[in-house]
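task queued by scheduler; priority normal; single chain, no ligands, no partner chains; default sampling; output format set to structure tokens
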Amino acid sequence: MGNTREVNGNAAILARINKGWKPNRYLTNMSMAYFADPKDHVATSIFPICPVDFSTGFYYEFLKGDLARDNVARKPAFGKVSPAKMGHTDNSYKCVVDQIIVGVDQIGAINYQRAGVPASIDPRRSKVRFVSEQQLLHLDILFAESFFKTGVWANEFTGISSGTPSGSQFLKFNDANFDPVNFFDARKREIKLAGRRMPNKLSLGYDSFTALKNHPDILERVKYTGGTANPAIVNEQVLGCEEVKVLEATYNAAEEGQPDDMKFVCESDGALLTYTTNAPAIDEPSAGYIFTWDMLGNGNYMATDQFEGEGGTHSEFIEGLMSTDMKKTSDDLACYLSACV
């Protein structure tokens, strides 16, 4: 009788294994998930988010020449000066909607629920995070395509490997003869004159930052600031800008089914010097804005929704929607550097 129970027990276990059950319990306190470090996302940290009520619309641009000109004149005796002109034009934005949908097999999800697996593998929880992560990644890619490449900004410089730079050229950052302090001071001066604001943000591709922090002139600025317990370290603040952002976001450029091809989202040898506001402002200029439209009316420009599949499919879907317009708003307040290393 005991043998019969043992055989039946083994048969039952084997049958459960054949159905997909595994006798080994999964760990509940760890898993491997290559979600990005939240601080690596770049788009929302460079240009301000500007929420809008409509998907398309206009905004005013006051004429810089009128604002910067001295319009005050000596009052003539018994007379008056001519009225000063304060002109404006307008520009437009257009937010487009992007979407991602991922499915959940409701029948398959039951196994996970009954097995007490880690929360990270719960199909609904993990796929909601997947959708959110995908939206942030897409936002970063839109940022790179709209702002962080050649051909976007009127004021662009290109690095050269040797010789004497001329015009819109500079020696690459990893050349010991490159003078980073004077070079960036000159770019700041140009932007201050053209746009009436001192640049406050320097965005660096990963390799550009690495080359700059190892440049002899930069190392010279910090070599006496450390000690044995706390060695001198070249960080973002040493580079002489109010805010320096190293663009470390990565993505897989390979198509599905192909070997992974991991790359940086933003050009790793690029750099962008800008003046931008921290938040949208009526009377402040900014090199760029990210216009965002609340397409569902729930206060979010990146929205997540969930809906049932067709009857009989025992499926449900998680949807992500986002609506943005990456808009260059002032060439006067930016300078892009390519081929920095």
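post-processing summary
- The first helix runs from residue 2 to 18.
- The chain has a mean pLDDT of 86.
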